[in-house]
Design a protein that fits this description.
mainly beta; 4-stranded antiparallel β-sheet
C-alpha cells in the first residue's frame, strides 16, 4: 500500500489550498479515508474523514471551511482548505483505513 500526498505550501491567511493523496495497492473504493494534521509540539488530530459511501465527518475547528472528497476512479482523496487561518499551520497526513498513512505535506498559513 502506498499513499502519495501533495498540494501543501505557504499561503496567506484567508487563502485556499487543495491537498491530494493518491493511493495504490488496495481496493480504494471500499475504504474509509481521511486527513489528519499535526502542528509543531502537538498531537496528531483528525481533520476530516469520508466513508466508502461518501459520508463525511470533520472536526469542529474546520467545519464550514475544509471539504473532504474522493474520486474512486482515480484512487485519490482530496482536502479543499478554504479561509485558512494561521492556526491551520501543520503537517497534513492522509490516511486509509485501517492503518495506512501518507508521508505528510506541510501547510503554512501566514498572518
Amino acid at each position: 500500500v502506498q499513499l502519495q500526498a501533495s498540494g501543501g505550501g505557504l499561503v496567506q491567511a484567508g487563502g485556499s489550498l487543495r491537498l491530494s493523496c493518491a493511493a495504490s495497492g488496495m481496493i480504494f473504493s471500499i475504504k474509509a479515508v481521511g486527513w489528519y494534521r499535526q502542528a509543531s509540539g502537538k498531537q496528531r488530530e483528525l481533520v476530516a474523514v469520508i466513508s466508502a459511501g461518501g459520508i463525511t465527518e470533520s472536526s469542529d475547528s474546520v467545519k464550514g471551511r475544509f471539504i473532504i472528497s474522493r474520486d474512486n476512479a482515480k484512487n485519490t482523496m482530496y482536502l479543499q482548505l478554504n479561509s485558512l487561518k494561521p492556526e491551520d499551520t501543520a503537517v497534513y497526513y492522509c490516511w486509509i483505513s485501517p492503518r495506512y498513512w501518507g508521508q505528510g505535506t506541510q501547510v503554512t498559513v501566514s498572518s
